[in-house]
Specification:
Oligomer: single chain
Largest sheet: 4 strands, antiparallel
Number of domains: 2
Number of helices: 4
Structural class: alpha+beta
Distance between the termini: 73 Å
Strand order of the largest sheet: 3-4-5-6
Order of helices and strands: HEEHHHEEEE
Shape: elongated
Length: 154
């Protein structure tokens, strides 16, 4: 049965099967009950295994259909790209992230990050550590490109 220890066989496998009326244990003998197949199916139904199997088979069939039809179905355009013609000239360049020296000069300065307002506590490499007003007891790691620094603030 592929179980190396007898106590594991009894505890993990035989006790649940005996409780489900699939097997009978008499001293050192284990045998199937007369209606073991019905009892096993009832137990699988109660545990939800049959519903899981049906759901998995339906998902597999949907994936097969999608794969078979992959060349016949064209993707719709995303609404955000509706007016775009796809030329690179329309792209905007992101501002350069602040360098280490600039960030050091802005420690303890107020910043307004995408996660909320706070102050710059520290920085290390590509990570700025900001203490947000909403969570004053800890610092939050934020990418340095997400830290907008105000001009003229030392």
């Amino acid at each position: 049965m592929g179980v190396s220890r007898i106590r594991d066989l009894r505890r993990r496998h035989l006790v649940p099967l005996e409780a489900a009326a699939v097997v009978e244990c008499l001293e050192d003998t284990v045998s199937l009950t007369g209606d073991w197949l019905d009892a096993l199916n009832d137990r699988c139904e109660m545990d939800g295994e049959i519903d899981d199997y049906r759901r998995d088979m339906q998902r597999y069939e949907r994936e097969q259909d999608a794969y078979r039809e992959r060349f016949n179905v064209r993707a719709d355009y995303h609404p955000a790209n509706f007016a775009a013609d796809g030329f690179i000239v329309e792209l905007e360049r992101l501002p350069e992230p602040p360098d280490s020296r600039t960030l050091t000069g802005h420690i303890n300065a107020r910043v307004d990050t995408p996660r909320g307002p706070g102050f710059l506590w520290d920085h290390k490499g590509e990570e700025a550590r900001v203490v947000l007003d909403s969570e004053p007891s800890r610092w939050v790691p934020i990418d340095v490109s997400e830290v907008p620094l105000e001009e003229g603030v030392p």
